[in-house]
Amino acid sequence: MGAYLEQSLGLQNSLVFILSAVVLLAIVLGFVTYSIYFQRKVLGWMQLRIGPNRVGPFGLLQTVADVLKLLLKEDIIPKAADKPLFIIAPVIAFVPAFGVLAVMPFTDKLHFADVGVGLLYYIALSGITVLGVITGGWASNNKWALIGAMRSAAQMISYEIPLVMSVVGVILMTGSLNLIDIVEKQKEMGMWFFIPQFLGFIIFIIAQLAELSRTPFDLTEAESELISGYHVEYSGFRWAFFMLTEYVYIFAMASLTTVLFLGGWLPPFEFLSFIPGIIWFALKFVAIVFFIFWLQATFPRMRVDQLMQMGWKVLLPLSLVNILVTAVLKTVL
Amino acid sequence: MSVPITSYLLVALILFCIGLYGALTKRNAVVILLSIELMLNAVNINLVAFAKYGMFPNISGQIFSLFTITVAAAEAAVGLAILISLYRNRNTVRVDEMDLMKR
Amino acid sequence: MANYFLIILTFSPLLGVLLLAFVPRSLPGTVKALGILATLVPLVLALMLYANFNSAAEGLQLVQQWNWINIPVGDQAIPINFEVGVDGLSMPLLVLTTVIATISAFAALTVNKRWKEFYILFLIVEMGMLGVFTSTNLFQFFIFFEFTIIPMFFMMGIWGYKDREKASMKFLLYNGVGSAIMLIVFVALFILMGTLNIEEIKQLLTSPMSPRNVPDMPGFIPEGLRLGLFLALLVAFAIKIPIVPFHTWMLKAYQEAHPAVIMISSGVLIKIGGYALIRMNAAFFPEWMNQLSTLIAVLGVINILYGAVLALVQDELKLMLAYSSVSHMGIVLLGLAAMNAEGFQGAIFQMVSHGLIAALMFYMVALIHERTGTSNIRELGGLAKSMPIISGILLTAMMASAGLPGMSGFISEFMSFVGLFGTKPIIAAIGALGIILTAVYLLRATLGATFGPIQQKHESLSDAQAIEVVPMVVLLSLVILIGIYPAVLSEPLQTTLQNIVPRIGG
Amino acid sequence: MNGASKWGNLAQYDWTVMSPEFTILGVATLLSLLDLVMNKNSDRRILAWIGFIGILIAGYFVVQNTGQNVVSILNDMYRLDGFANAFKLIFLAGVAFVFLISINYVDEKKNVKYSGEYYYLMLMALLGAMMMASSADLITLFVGLELLSIASYILVGTRKNHIQSNESAFKYVISGGIASAVTLYGMSFIYGLTGSTNLYVMAERLSSVFQGGFDFLVYLSFFLMLVGLAFKISAVPYHMWAPDVYQGSPTPITAFLSVVSKAAGFAIILRIFLIIFGNLVNFDMTNGQQSSVLVDTLGLYIAIVAGASMIIGNTLAMRQVNIKRMMAYSGIAQAGYLLVPFATLTVLMFEQTIFYLVAYLLANMGAFAIIMLVNRDRQTEDVKSFAGLYHRAPWMAIAMTFFLLSLAGLPISAGFFGKFYIFMSTIVHSSYWLAGIMLATSVVSYFYYFGVIRQMYMRPGQTEAPLKVPFTVAAVVLVALAGTIAVGIMPDPVLQYIHHNFPLQQMFQASGQ
Amino acid sequence: MATLYANNYFLVVIFLSLGVLLPVVALTFGRLLRPSNPTEEKRKTYESGVDPVGSSWVQFNVKYYIFALLFVIFDVETVFLYPWAVAYDSLGLFALVEMLIFITLLIIGLIYAWKKKVLEWN
């Protein structure tokens, strides 16, 4: 990929770029399909159930069937809704979710855009999704949708700050915002950043869960209270795109965590380096995804006031402390 | 593949004019605040464009724009806060209804 | 002592201000007495000045200067000094000021409220007037000039009749415009000359050797600029004098203000205009003064006739006096327009004489108004029966004002017209018409007030008391003194005038 | 150099020159913390006094810095020169006065609820103003400007439950936002042409750019900046906000806006325009003569702004019945007068401006102190509330008279000499039309200033009860009155002090000279 | 170097356009497949099965705005943290001190909000 990037833009490498992006999109869609399956299975095992097992072998085609069903469902737009915004909201939510993957390095060879400010790009773009959520909730002109959207927005912006601040420690240690540089630095130090940046790592993981609206922070969904939050009026494929966004973000976040704190494609020990980097990356990635689903079976949902206080009163001060400690330690050591 | 600086400046100019027009003519206070943000963003485009393609390309333009962004945010925050307290007292965000003092 | 004499004279009214400040408001008697006594201090000092004045000496006497302000320009500084001096032109006016002030202080006894403030403001005005006449520096002149305006505003606005506030505002705005224009000219002169000393400016502007007068030298002042400055000054002082289109402030003020206030205004303040015309216009720009003398003369004639005609139809005594003042100040202009020694002397005589007579007449009006509650001729009449002294003196004053020989009015008018007949006989002839009208309207008013049937309610009114008579007598005797022995004034004037106005003939 | 390498280049600068700013920042922080830990119901006047002491200390540091050579740190982002010191002293004095006035104003629960915030926000605004005076870099200038502006927006709206206060605060935010956007847009072009935010580098590069065919852009940015910055001084193209905002704000804040904020506006205007456009020259091809752009071309526009401000401010002030609105229009007019020295650019330009600002500071602070007292006592802001003041508080009335005389520019008051000095510059520059406007509008101004005086002395008030004058307000009035009269009689010491201690040419000198 | 820079962002543009394209294509495709039979009841806004009461575009709890304001402030402050963190190595100790002051002020801001009970939900 690096070689193509060096060349001036021509027909050949344009095609390569486009095709590779399409391939990634396909992979991501596949991931989403099977992560839902995976999630249901994991939850099933943990709750001593079987999970999907009817459609296809081991129920492997269950999600595919679900997608097909969604595609064939009637698309209803409420009369009272703000139609243009209603239509555009899922797109606003989805585009950044996929867009952030443009800078994600999977190995030192296998990556797409090698942007100097990759991390900043990721953070900046991911912040836009909240707009889609708010737009969707507001455009529905439904009380539950609006409350859900507002809550969801409040939660997302509240946890965005600790998230953003917790990575400052990583930047401090690396001196670069380039995601490849960050992995290289971990290689150079011989230590993945979750060890020196343990506090930052914890904050990042928690904040990330909240950003993804996963348990124990899945208040926006809150089936029992808000029916299903901001997308209550959405149906069919429009609804599917909100779901898609959510799972693509799981993909992106898991990748980002891997890159920032778990050494990306680096092997845990030098002697294991014969195994290709992509495998290591995939392993760590899957571990995180599993972790995320695992929590869903373990933790109860938080109360909204607990949620907000946790973000502002615990995580934010901690992340500020993390920055200070990192800076001081870096100077002293 | 490089875009001439004039197009950046033109975008900025258009943005600035839209913002100015909105700030001067709109009735809704929130829209006015947004228009002001638009104007400030036009400035940012200008600064960043000049920082890269100006007569003497250097980084100070980008630094300037960082400060502009921050200040714009603070200004918007204060503006919104004041608007909220105004709304609590008067129950309106329409600027043409804010006429208690004309004499 | 001699060194500081003029300074002491100028600021002597402040002594009274200081003392008054410590007298409690609740003792009106003390306040009034102190107020009158305080005016005596400058009076005595002014008389001492008159006694010690050297009439033969040319130029300024008792000159003193102190450095006041330095305007830093680069490394050097342009000084603005505080400087005083007196000559034959200002000395009579100084004496006039103190005399009128004392008399007005007596007239102010009829003020009905807030005596303390009245006398404090009054004394500040006196200081301003004295300062105007002692300053030999344009800047200082301006500041003291303002010192007369602002307290006057208060005095007109607080103590007066129904519409006093409007009158005071009008007074302020007119005089404000005048002083603003004056300031423009002064600053311009300062920038052009580098000095504010009147004498130095005169030298620079008139001496043939001065670079200001030699074309192509740096600092040369072209004729156009001189004309502009001259006209601006003329307008500034025209408001003060006042020359006809600018006279409306005076009508309103004379109608609404307390007579004691008007006595100062009419007696001294409006003279500042004439004084400054001689001191500045004639001294700085003699050529233009000469060339435009016809214009000034015409303005003078307009003033005389306009004032006289309108005075003729007034029923309100105060308004009549106001128009009469306009008319009389026209004579000052005529004298100036003559551009010769007789004319100038006539002008100055007229200023002093009108000062005295106007003060006297307003004093009389004040007394009448206090007793009858009106000063409208229609509501008066027959006063001679109930108050013979007041009526008698009023009649005498009217005659003096009309220019009866043996009184100061005659001398001044005579000299002015003699001067003007020498240069502009036609205009002088037209102006002389006004003199006849003067006699007519004065007689009409006086006779209307004093003779004829008396009104019922006026029958039992008391005549003037002794203390009220004193000022009248003093003023009247001064009027007569100048009338029969003009040398008291003309002697110090003679040499001075030659010195002040370079182009003045014989 | 060993220590330097460890601590970085920044540590080599002489940070002590910033001690006034550090003091203010420290005190503001301290106040905010104290405000947080203090009991909710305890008396917060102590905070005002701490702040006041902080201001005095900062003032002491500024005086210590006065007369020093130029010190420039952070690549001219911070400069210590005569220009900066002069303005800082004015700001500090202004805010000190405002603090004293506020102590009585804020105290009442109904006026301003959060008194702690009130004080440290004002200190932050002061800090912004000081940075504006003391910087030669667009970024810091802009940040200082906004620090001042944003703090003032909040201060204007401190009366949270007062509808007019809210409304005026919102109007202020909107106008301020537009103004800073316009200013910034102008700045961005200048930056683009010169590629630097340092004013000196900009000035150096701008001449060649100017002659290289970009004169249109230079003019454009000049006008944009002029319009935008006119907001801060409430001069004409951008004055409409002033009446509403002045009327709606708490009176001490109105005083603050009218003096400190305005002076800060002048600081930034003079600093930016003098340095950047100072040595631009127009080259006349026909006769090969050079002429200074700032003096010959731009000066005219500034003069037009000045003249228009005087005319509009003074004429509209006549129609006002609300005293604060009247003072707002009067402030617009005063901004016009204050622009005159800059428009004419004589050698005395700086002395004239500073002197006038001092006179204006004294008069306006004193006037607003009394306005606050009277308005609060009568529960109305009508000019009529001054009726009979002379009988209620004669000394206050006399003091007010002097302040108004000073604002009108009549002797004996500091304002007279201020106007006189400025007036001289118009004649030196031969802009007689400007001189004419200046004097004519001054006369117009008599009308409304004396209107207040008329109320005080000539109209009967609704009550004759003596007005209670709190100690701090009395102190402010006394100091302002003494200053106004003393400077009005002997202006020389002040002028000489300005001339010798705050040399303007330091503005153009490099560090260490 | 310039091509690398441009190509990187070209890729970014590709990703973003794909992000737009996918929904558009999927929805267009879906339109051909899915039934469309809107009726009044279907198009009614959902409100727990009863007819909706009034519009939902109503005044909202001010709490949300205050959190939004807080977010804006803190989020924007990170704008300064990032460049500082990147350039930290070349700035020296003094930058640490400066950033200590900056972060201290941020913390004071947080404490302020805390004390003023802005961080409480409800």
TrEMBL record, chain A:
Topological relation to the membrane, as annotated: Multi-pass membrane protein
InterPro entries in the cross-refs: NADH_UbQ_OxRdtase_su1/FPO (IPR001694), NADH_UbQ_OxRdtase_su1_CS (IPR018086)
Primary subcellular site in the record, as a coarse category: membrane
PROSITE patterns reported for this sequence: COMPLEX1_ND1_2
PANTHER family according to UniProt: NADH DEHYDROGENASE SUBUNIT 1 (PTHR11432), NADH-UBIQUINONE OXIDOREDUCTASE CHAIN 1 (PTHR11432:SF3)
Protein family per UniProt: Belongs to the complex I subunit 1 family.
Record note on quaternary structure: NDH-1 is composed of 14 different subunits. Subunits NuoA, H, J, K, L, M, N constitute the membrane sector of the complex.
Protein name: NADH-quinone oxidoreductase subunit H
TrEMBL record, chain B:
GO annotation, cellular component aspect: NADH dehydrogenase complex; plasma membrane
Keywords, sorted A to Z: Cell membrane, Membrane, NAD, Quinone, Translocase, Transmembrane, Transmembrane helix, Transport
Membrane topology value: Multi-pass membrane protein
Catalytic activity: a quinone + NADH + 5 H(+)(in) = a quinol + NAD(+) + 4 H(+)(out)
Any matching Pfam family: Oxidored_q2
GO terms classed as biological process: ATP synthesis coupled electron transport
GO molecular function, one term: NADH dehydrogenase (quinone) (non-electrogenic) activity
Localization terms from the record: Cell membrane; Membrane
Enzyme Commission code(s) on record: 7.1.1.-
Superkingdom as given in the UniProt entry: Bacteria
Primary residence: membrane
Annotated family: Belongs to the complex I subunit 4L family.
Function of the molecule: NDH-1 shuttles electrons from NADH, via FMN and iron-sulfur (Fe-S) centers, to quinones in the respiratory chain. The immediate electron acceptor for the enzyme in this species is believed to be a menaquinone. Couples the redox reaction to proton translocation (for every two electrons transferred, four hydrogen ions are translocated across the cytoplasmic membrane), and thus conserves the redox energy in a proton gradient.
Subunit composition and interactions: NDH-1 is composed of 14 different subunits. Subunits NuoA, H, J, K, L, M, N constitute the membrane sector of the complex.
Name assigned to this protein: NADH-quinone oxidoreductase subunit K
Organism of provenance: Aneurinibacillus migulanus
Taxonomic placement: Bacteria, Bacillati, Bacillota, Bacilli, Bacillales
UniProtKB/TrEMBL annotation, chain C:
KW Transmembrane helix (keyword) present: yes
Topological category with respect to the lipid bilayer: Multi-pass membrane protein
GO MF terms, alphabetically ordered: NADH dehydrogenase (ubiquinone) activity; NADH dehydrogenase activity; ubiquinone binding
Domain of life of the organism encoding this protein: Bacteria
TM stretches of this protein: 6-23, 35-53, 89-111, 118-135, 141-161, 173-198, 218-239, 260-280, 292-313, 320-341, 347-368, 389-411, 426-445, 466-488
Ranges of residues in domain NADH:quinone oxidoreductase/Mrp antiporter transmembrane: 135-430
The keyword RNA-binding is annotated on this UniProt entry: no
Family: Belongs to the complex I subunit 4 family.
Protein name: NADH-quinone oxidoreductase subunit M
Lineage: Bacteria, Bacillati, Bacillota, Bacilli, Bacillales
TrEMBL record, chain D:
Main location: membrane
Pfam families hit by this protein: Proton_antipo_M
Enzyme Commission code(s) on record: 7.1.1.-
UniProt keyword Transmembrane, yes or no: yes
Molecular function GO labels: NADH dehydrogenase (quinone) (non-electrogenic) activity; NADH dehydrogenase (ubiquinone) activity; quinone binding
Catalytic reaction(s) noted: a quinone + NADH + 5 H(+)(in) = a quinol + NAD(+) + 4 H(+)(out)
Top enzyme class: translocase
NADH:quinone oxidoreductase/Mrp antiporter transmembrane domain mapped to chain residues: 135-444
Any one of the GO CC terms: plasma membrane
Keyword Heme tagged: no
Transmembrane parts of this sequence: 15-34, 46-63, 83-106, 118-133, 139-157, 169-193, 216-241, 253-278, 298-317, 329-348, 354-374, 395-418, 430-450, 471-490
Location of the protein in the cell: Cell membrane; Membrane
Keywords, ordered alphabetically: Cell membrane, Membrane, NAD, Quinone, Translocase, Transmembrane, Transmembrane helix, Transport, Ubiquinone
Coiled coil feature spans: none
Gene Ontology biological-process annotations: ATP synthesis coupled electron transport
Membrane topology field: Multi-pass membrane protein
InterPro entries: NADH-Q_OxRdtase_suN/2 (IPR010096), ND/Mrp_TM (IPR001750)
NCBIfam families the UniProt entry points to: NDH_I_N (TIGR01770), PRK05777.2-4 (NF004446)
Protein family per UniProt: Belongs to the complex I subunit 2 family.
Function statement: NDH-1 shuttles electrons from NADH, via FMN and iron-sulfur (Fe-S) centers, to quinones in the respiratory chain. The immediate electron acceptor for the enzyme in this species is believed to be a menaquinone. Couples the redox reaction to proton translocation (for every two electrons transferred, four hydrogen ions are translocated across the cytoplasmic membrane), and thus conserves the redox energy in a proton gradient.
PANTHER family: NADH DEHYDROGENASE
Protein name: NADH-quinone oxidoreductase subunit N
Organism field: Aneurinibacillus migulanus
